[in-house]
Protein 1
Amino acid sequence: MLRKSSRPPRRSKLDRLLTAPEIAARRERLAEVIPLLRERLDPCLLCPRHCAARRTRGQTGECGLDDRLRVASVARHGGEEPPLSGKQGAINVFYSGCSLHCRHCQNWPLSQRQVGTDLTPAALADRILRKWLQGAHTLGWVTPSPQIVPALEAYVACLDQGFDLPLVHNGGGYDDPEIIALLAGIVDLWLPDAKTVSPERAAAIQDAADYPQHNREALEAMVKQVRAGQARAVIVRHLVLPEATDDSRQVLEILWEAFGNRIHISLMAQYFPTYRTENHETLGRQITAEEYDGVVAFARELGFRHGWVQQHGMEHGIPLCCLP
Ligand code: SF4
């Protein structure tokens, strides 16, 4: 078993370490769940696209992936929400490929061009464990859904070495609730996006008119796990876009009506035009401080108290409850 050398950081109830019984229970659960998920890999039904690609036969799905594990980077990142990155940072695994096709994707070379390196689950586990030995608060998986099977196999190899950081599932919020349910007792912190509640905008921007419906169902499945004590929290991220503050307000209203303060929200200000929005008539600029501050004020008016906001142009950091 690997041993860590660094002095342990202070932790909250969100980023506390897994106990030995929790690790044992998780390994048992993974042994049940991985074969069930593998059954949905070919023909692939792992995300709401249900594109049925024959991935084990080399076909690529709408996410651009076959059955190989492809990872863009494994890095420690200090700019996540405070309980996720703390002082030592989060170990973020950026998976290549994505089943959404957001025209403004801020990580588009990874998500839309599948930039990355093919790894075995054991090689990915090795990279994660090396970062763990340097100290970190959480393990964050960024866009893991299409590669959930090899990602979980790598996670098992980490747990076999005593890996005890909480697992964060950071995705676009376009997930099948049945898959989310299978991950109960494995994911500690859900970190989904809520991009829009408008099917028209979702069709135009994400190439997925059914995004709002699946997003709602996925969030319900995640919140259910928190209520059942199977996960610690759901932190819903929303990226404020230019000329779209009405849409942001609708997203917040629906989240408030459905979940109230049972979720944390994280309002993001860092949008910049890229990929297919550089000359777009509404998405071709950054947001203004006025646009962002208006959305933050609206969240406060609704009653949200758990979550974080950014200072315009800076990383996550200010607790919502601390705003005047
Ligand atoms: S994960 Fe990829 S291959 Fe599987 S259904 Fe979704 S888009 Fe298709």
Protein 2
Amino acid sequence: MRPANDRKRRFRPHSVLLPLFFRLRNLKVLEHLAFLQESQFWPRERLEELQLARLRKLVKHASETVPYYREVFARSGITAQDIRTLDDVKRLPILSKEDIVDRPLSAFLSSSGGRPFAVRKTSGTTGHPVTVLVDRDAYAWSIAARYRCEQWHGIRIGDRQARLWGRALDQKGRRLESLRDLTLGRRTINASNMMDASSLRRQVQGLLACSPDYVYAYPSLVLALSEHLKEDSLPRNALHVKAVICTAEKLHGFQKRFLAEVFDCPIVDEYGCSEIDILAFDCERGQKHIVAENVLLEVVKGNDLGAGEVVVTDLNNRLMPLIRYKLGDIGVIAPNPCECGRGLPVLSSICGRTSDQVIMTPDGKRVHSVIFDYFLERLAGMGIGIRQFKAVQERLDRITLYLVVPNEDDRRKTDLLVARDLAPSLGHRVRLETKHVPRIDLFPGKFSCFEAHPSLAGAWRGHTSQEEFTNWDSSQSGER
Ligand SMILES: [Zn+2]
């Protein structure tokens, strides 16, 4: 793999236009970036001092000016003076998506005024779409953090981004997206344009023509594209990009290796959320560093899955403070620092939403869908080439594995290993079936390698009977 600084160094007009734009809009992106470039190498203790100072300020501000916090802090008898160490954050109540959705937005807005600079909205895949208003400075800190992390892979301000995205947009949305693309010097390719082979091929040609410096994408979309890059026998690293940044979906090890082979560049995983933006980012050594200057990320123990739930505090957004906001993801913070020398803590594992990731079985067992990751890793270790994978639980007692395995011998081996190694972990009452398909189509929106009947969330809480599963149309499975 060639190092990032060996890659093309062409002049990009946006390297001049964007700093000008920030200045015109009074966004202190460059100042914050200079700070973050230095603070990333601070020792852990100094970073924690910074977090504590920002947290105390935020708690004081929220308790004085935000109706929701004024009420809940008063009820629990907490004031900013009670936050003496970072550990004291645990004394503050946890905020859920439901807490936000159940109240008017004004309950979370600071009375100290200020116009929102940006509006962030979640897609609503959790059933609780959340809107967050962001002030100018919090927005600038987010952009600065993104630039800092991208620089780890040789990406500079103004570099051209090819963005493979999955959001279904109406006409107005598409116009806004085009305007944003123009401002930021990027090109967006929507998933709805990547549904069949001929449109994929067109997108590949379009991508080659726009000559991006890096790719920012949902893993499922960039994988679909790379299949075509490979099938068209284009030269290795035809796109010649500095990095491929994957976001929004779980990036599996076998997918990362395939992408690295096609693109011949670092494949970088980003962890973020729509409400706060970037939370953690892979460094050159593939370790996911938390953006500790902007967010206080805690892993709260307590469920019976053996992992902790991720709870985050946005340390900068004073217009609509999010304090101890529960994302619904499961994570683990690494005990040791990364060898790259940065003091930023490392997230050693992160899985998607708790309820989406749990497989319920008829005998009441809960099995985490991470078992599919382990299984796929095992197959990869044995040299079995898997291109795409999706597990669909149609009923409590039936799971179908849709697999794209090009080699016939590999398909046979996979079937044997599914029956021998994977099926026992789900128990004898679950029928596990494999279906080899030429490809698994993508739908606009996030792609998940495990999908259960929509009422599984209810089953997870123990309220849904097996009968409610039976009428689900299996055509939703992703096989077409
Ligand atoms: Zn590192």
